C-alpha cells in the first residue's frame, strides 16, 4: 500500500521504545509474497536475530514486537506491509521517532552514585577526529556517544569519555533540548575551539530524570578531569599520548569572559607548542583549576 491518502499516514506512536531496544526493518517473503516489518528488538535478542542468514525462515515476533502506530483515521495499525520496501512516509516517520539502542549488554543501569564528568579535548588542527560518534535517542530526546572501536589512544578515550555517556553540556551550553542537527551544528562550527563536554553515565541520567533533578555546571559531584591534547596533526582516530613541553616559552593569555591578561608558561597550556598560535583558544592549568583563555602574545624567557 502506498499510503497516498493523508488519512492513512502515521499520527501517533503506539509502541513505545525502551533505551535497550533497537528498531529493525525485516524484509522477506510471506507465503511467497514479498513483505516487510518494522520490529523492536531487545538487547538480549539482537545477536540471535543477526545470526540468521538471508533466506532463512523466521517468525519475527520471536525476536521482538512489531511496531504499531495510530493513523489519521484513529485506527491502530502494524508497521508491516506487502512489497520489498515500506512506503517513504513510513520510512521517514520511523526514522524520526525510533532509534538504535542507547545501551548495550555491558551497561549497568543500577544507580549507586553520581558519575558526572567534565571532559576536555584540544585538537592540534580543526579537522582532527576525536574518536567518538554523536548519536541521538529520539524517543526520550537525549544525546549520547559511542567510542570508535579502532581508536585505543583517541582524544575521546584519553579524556575519559565512555560508551553510551549522555551528553548534557557542550562547550558550556546545555544541549538537552537541541535536536541532533542543532547539536552537530554547534559541534561543527566550533572546531577551532577546545571541545568540553559534561557527560554522565546512563544510570546517573536515568536517576536524575526519574527524580526530576537538574544538571548544571556547579554540581559538587562533577569530576573535573584533566584536559588532553593532540600531539600530532593526524586526522585519524589514533593519537599517541606523548607530552611536548617548551620550558623557554611563555604566553600572554586573556582569560575567557574577562579582560584580565596573565603570563603563563607553555607547560601550563594544554596544546603542543608546535601547533599553538596567536589567537588560539586553549585550556590552561592554574592553581588546581583548568581555565579557558585566548593566547594574545608569545614570548621567550631570557
What do you see in this structure?
This protein has 5 helices and 19 strands. It is elongated and about 80 Å long. By secondary structure, it is mainly beta. Mean pLDDT is 88; it is low at 237-243. Strands 8, 9, 10, 11, 12, 13, 14 and 15 form an 8-stranded mixed sheet that branches.
Given as residue ranges, the uncertain stretches (5+ residues, pLDDT < 50) are 237-243
**What structural class is derived from the secondary structure elements?**
mainly beta
The H-and-E topology, N to C, reads as EEEHEEEEHEEEHEEHEHEEEEEE
Major sheet? 8 strands, mixed
Can you tell me the CATH superfamily of the largest domain? Answer: PDZ domain
Percent strand:
25-35%
| CATH level 1 name of the largest domain | Mainly Beta
The total count of helices amounts to 5
Apparent shape: elongated
Total domain count: 3
Radius of gyration: 24 Å
CATH architecture of the largest domain: Roll
State the CATH topology of the largest domain. Answer: Pdz3 Domain
Distance separating the two termini: 80 Å
Helix content: 10-25%
Topology, number of strands: 19
Instruction: Estimate the mean pLDDT confidence.
Output: 88
Fill in the keyword field for this structure.
302 residues; mainly beta; Pdz3 Domain; 3 domains; eight-stranded mixed β-sheet; four-stranded antiparallel β-sheet; 5 helices; 13% helix
Outline of the structure:
The chain is built from five helices and 19 strands. With 302 residues, it is mostly beta strands. Residues 237-243 have low confidence and may be disordered.
Amino acid at each position: 500500500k502506498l499510503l497516498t491518502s493523508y488519512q492513512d499516514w502515521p499520527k501517533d506512536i503506539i509502541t513505545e521504545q525502551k533505551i535497550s531496544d533497537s528498531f529493525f526493518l525485516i524484509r522477506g517473503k510471506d507465503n511467497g509474497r514479498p513483505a516487510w516489518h518494522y520490529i523492536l528488538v531487545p538487547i538480549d535478542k539482537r545477536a540471535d536475530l543477526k545470526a540468521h542468514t538471508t533466506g532463512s525462515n523466521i517468525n519475527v515476533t520471536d525476536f521482538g514486537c512489531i511496531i504499531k502506530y495510530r493513523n489519521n483515521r484513529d485506527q491502530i495499525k502494524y508497521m508491516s506491509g506487502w512489497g520489498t520496501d515500506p512506503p517513504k512516509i513510513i520510512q521517514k516517520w520511523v526514522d524520526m521517532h525510533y532509534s538504535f539502542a542507547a545501551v548495550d549488554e555491558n551497561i549497568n543501569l543500577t544507580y549507586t552514585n553520581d558519575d558526572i564528568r567534565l571532559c576536555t579535548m584540544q585538537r592540534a588542527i580543526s579537522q582532527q577526529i576525536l574518536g567518538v560518534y554523536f548519536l541521538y535517542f529520539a524517543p526520550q530526546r537525549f544525546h549520547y556517544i559511542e567510542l570508535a572501536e579502532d581508536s585505543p589512544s583517541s582524544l575521546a578515550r584519553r579524556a575519559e569519555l565512555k560508551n553510551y555517556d549522555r551528553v548534557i553540556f557542550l562547550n558550556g551550553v546545555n544541549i538537552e533540548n537541541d535536536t541532533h542537527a542543532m547539536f552537530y551544528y554547534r559541534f561543527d562550527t566550533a572546531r577551532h575551539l577546545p571541545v568540553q563536554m559534561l557527560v554522565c553515565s546512563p544510570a546517573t541520567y536515568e536517576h536524575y530524570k526519574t527524580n526530576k533533578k537538574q544538571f548544571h555546571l556547579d554540581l559538587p559531584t562533577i569530576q573535573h578531569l584533566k584536559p588532553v591534547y593532540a600531539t600530532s596533526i593526524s586526522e585519524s582516530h589514533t593519537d599517541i599520548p606523548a607530552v611536548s613541553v617548551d620550558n623557554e616559552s611563555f604566553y600572554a593569555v586573556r582569560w575567557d569572559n574577562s579582560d584580565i591578561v596573565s603570563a603563563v608558561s607553555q607547560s601550563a597550556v594544554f596544546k603542543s607548542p608546535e601547533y599553538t598560535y596567536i589567537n588560539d583558544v586553549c585550556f590552561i592549568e592554574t592553581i588546581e583549576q583548568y581555565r579557558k583563555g585566548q593566547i594574545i602574545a608569545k614570548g621567550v624567557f631570557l
